[in-house]
Amino acid sequence: MNYVYTAITDKGEKREGMIEAVNQELAIAGLQRRGLIVTSIKDEEHAKKWFEITLFEHVPMKDVVIFSRQVSTLFEAQVSALKAFTLLSENTENKLLGRKLSTIVSDLQAGSSIAGAMAKQSDVFSDFYVNMVKAGEESGKLTQVFSFLADYLDRQYALTTKTKNAFVYPIFVISVFFIVMILMFTVIVPKLSDIITQSGQPIPVYTQIVFAISNIFINYGIFMLIFVVLAVAALIYMARTPKGKQVVDDIKFGFPVVGNLYSKLYLARIADNMDTMLSSGIPIVRAIEITAQVVGNKRYQGIMMNTMEGVKAGKSFSQALAEHPEIPKLMPQIIRVGEETGSVGSILKMLAKFYNREVDQAIDTLVGLIEPFMIVFLGIGVGILLVSILVPIYNIAGGIQ
C-alpha cells in the first residue's frame, strides 16, 4: 500500500512524498530510518480529498521532456541518482510529477533500481521509457540514455503538437459557425417568422423548412442539447474500449488525406522508437515489442506484434515487416540495406527524419484543403439562410409598393 507523508529533516526542511509499505507502522519506521520526523501520514486513498478532480490531473509530455533533460544534465555533473531525483522532486512545477518523483526517491532509498522505481509510475513513464533507462543502467550509459530520451520525446512532442494544431483552427471556426446558426434560429428567425407569416404572402418551401428548424430548436432545444451531451459522453467512453479504439482507427484511415497523415505519423514513430532503442543496446525483439506497445494505434500495434513473431521465427526485421501491405515497400527495402551493411540504427534514423518531413507536408496539405472547404461550407450555409429570409421580405416589400 502507498502512504502519503509529510515530514521534516533534522535540519528543519519540509519533505512530502509517498512511500510503499505493508502497513502504516512499517511506513513510519522506514521514514524514520531515513532520518525523517513524520508529521503526517495517510494511505493514498484517504489522502485524496473529495473535491480533487484527478481525471484531468496528468503529467504533460513537455514536463517529461524537461525532466529528462534535467536528469541528463545532473548526471553529467556527477550528481548521484538519489540526489538528482530529490532535487527535481522538490523543484518541479507540476505537482503530480513532484509526487511521482518523491515516490521514486523513496524506492531508490529502499534499494530499488531507477528503472524499477520508474516502472511503478506507469502513468508517467511508458514501457519504452522504462526499458531505455534499464538498458542505460545495464550498459552504464544513463547520461546518454536520458539525453536520447529527451531528444526523442522532444521530437514526438513537436510532431504530435503540430498534428493536433492542424485541427484546432477548423474545429474552432466550425464550432463558432454552429453557435451563430443556433442563435440565428432561436433569436432572429422567430421574430422574422412572425412578420412574414402575418403578412399573408405565400411562403416558399425552403423558407418553411427554415422556420420548421427554428421551431424545433425553440421547442426541443434543451432535449437536443442533453442528447448531444450524452451521445458525446457515450462516444468518448466507447472510444476508450479496445473495440472502440479499433473503430476510431478505422475511421481515421477511411479519409484519404487524414488517413495518409496518420499512416506517416505512425511510421515516423515506429522508425524513431526502433532507432532510439537499438542505439541504446536493447535487443531487436524487445525493441519491436515495446514499439508495438507505445505506437498508439491498434492497426500498427498488430503489425509490429506480427513482425516480432516473424523475427522470433528466424526472419530478418525487413522480411517480417515487408509482409504487411500497410507498410510502404520503401521502408523494408531501405532497412534491408541497413541489415546488410550493419547500420540499421542510422537507416532507421534517416527513415524517421524522412517520415517526419512527410508528416509536415501532409499537415500543410490538409490545412490547405480545409480552408477553402470551410469557406465554401460556411458560404453555402449562410447563403441558404439569407435567401430563405430575404426573399419573403422582398416579396412583402414589393406587395406594399
Q: Can I get a quick summary?
A:
This protein has 401 residues and is mostly helical.
What sequence of helices (H) and strands (E) makes up the elements? Answer: EEHEHHHHHHHHHHHHHHH
Structural domain tally: 2
Task: Supply the CATH superfamily name of the largest domain.
Answer: Type II secretion system (T2SS), domain F
CATH topology of the largest domain: Receptor-associated Protein
What is the CATH-assigned architecture of the largest domain? Up-down Bundle
Radius of gyration: 29 Å
Number of helices: 16
- What's the pLDDT, averaged over the residues? 82
Approximately what portion of the residues adopt beta-strand conformation? 5-15%
Provide the spatial order of strands within the biggest beta sheet: 2-1-3
Q: How many angstroms does the end-to-end distance come to? A: 85 Å
Q: pLDDT under 50 segments (min length 5)?
A: 48-56
CATH class label of the largest domain: Mainly Alpha
Give a structural overview.
This protein has helices spanning 24-33, 44-47, 61-76, 81-91, 95-109, 114-119, 127-139, 142-198, 205-239, 242-254, 256-279, 284-294, 298-312, 317-322, 330-341, 344-400; strands spanning 2-8, 14-20, 37-43. With 401 residues, the chain is mainly alpha-helical. It folds into two domains: 1-57, Ubiquitin-like (UB roll) (Roll), CATH 3.10.20; 159-401, Type II secretion system (T2SS), domain F (Receptor-associated Protein). The chain is extended, with a radius of gyration of 29 Å. The model is unreliable at 48-56 (pLDDT under 50).
